[in-house]
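Summary of Year 1 activities. Much of the first year was spent building the evaluation harness for sequence design. The harness presents a backbone, in tokenized form, and records the residue chosen at every position. We chose the following record to illustrate the format because it has been used consistently in internal testing since the harness was completed.
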């Protein structure tokens, strides 16, 4: 097992995500601007396995992509030296050629290796390979951008309410449904 370059506490401090969506347990290798290797220990008590699938637990592909994204976020943060400032996030912009080749199940130790294909100011394109026991389970290219999110302005909220009211009041030919009581089958 490779020695940890960043343990869980440091990973958690570097990420904006919180339980139950932290998908990186440790960083084993990091070369700013070039590559990162991370580990996700998949356990049967994770919340996604309550429904995916109760009889045969399989890690959802979207969470494998999330794990890759969080790895990229750490790499981006360590490369730029600034990380993300308050109100900023590293957002997923594109997923290309993503392939899920072998199911990831509880008890697996998923290792992710990402290589930078391109870094331009606040944009990054990475190529990722996820493995379990040296078997490739997923591959793909992902694009990310650093973006600032602002809360909706009160004008936007008022405009949305006006649109909703106008739809409710002017289109009387469309029957409305009472959703307060479940429909009996």
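For this record, the design step produced the sequence shown next.
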């Amino acid at each position: 097992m490779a020695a940890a370059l960043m343990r869980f506490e440091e990973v958690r401090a570097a990420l904006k995500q919180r339980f139950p969506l932290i998908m990186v347990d440790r960083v084993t290798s990091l070369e700013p601007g070039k590559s990162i290797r991370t580990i996700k220990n998949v356990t049967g008590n994770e919340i996604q396995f309550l429904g995916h699938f109760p009889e045969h637990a399989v890690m959802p592909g979207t969470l494998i992509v999330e794990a890759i994204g969080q790895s990229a976020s750490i790499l981006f943060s360590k490369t730029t030296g600034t990380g993300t400032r308050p109100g900023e996030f590293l957002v997923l912009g594109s997923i290309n050629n993503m392939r899920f080749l072998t199911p990831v199940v509880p008890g697996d130790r998923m290792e992710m290796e990402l290589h930078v294909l391109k870094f331009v100011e606040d944009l990054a394109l990475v190529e990722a390979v996820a493995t379990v026991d040296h078997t490739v389970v997923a591959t793909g290219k992902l694009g990310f951008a650093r973006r600032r999110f602002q809360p909706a302005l009160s004008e936007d909220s008022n405009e949305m309410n006006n649109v909703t009211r106008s739809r409710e009041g002017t289109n009387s030919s469309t029957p409305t449904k009472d959703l307060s009581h479940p429909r009996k089958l």
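The CA atoms of residues 168 and 176 lie 9 Å apart. Quantitative recovery figures across the full test set are reported in Table 2.
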